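Please go through this chain and its backbone structure tokens and walk me through the local backbone shapes. Keep your notes short.
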Amino acid sequence: MQNAFASPGGMLDLAGLDIGPARDVIANARMVCEAARGAGIQVVYLTIGYPPDLSTAGGPDSPNPRKELALCLMRERPELRGKLLTFGTWDFQIVEELAPLAGDVVIVKSRYSGFFGTNLDSMLRSRGVRNLLMVGIASNVCV
């Protein structure tokens, strides 16, 4: 989970959404990740983000700029441009409690789907992964 979705001062918090329940999810996700690592199971993080120029956000015919919250907020509130889900920013980073460890895989995506424009499929196939266990707070768009 990224600061944008689960931390005070992150994108969802700035949008006025209640991020309080994320604390319990983070604690549970941490336990799952620790157990997976202990069992030799690959931990993979999916993050969503954009370069400062938003070049991967999608063109005029793409629905992404009209439906992705960070892009909508940055359009409506220009002072947030380059601060929400932008590579290298605090908002983009994975929450400290779930920071990836050596051996974990982090995949950056620019759409809700973790498969669109990423190497997720080939990475899973090359490792022979046939089953997934997912944790997170937004299964409709991120998990």
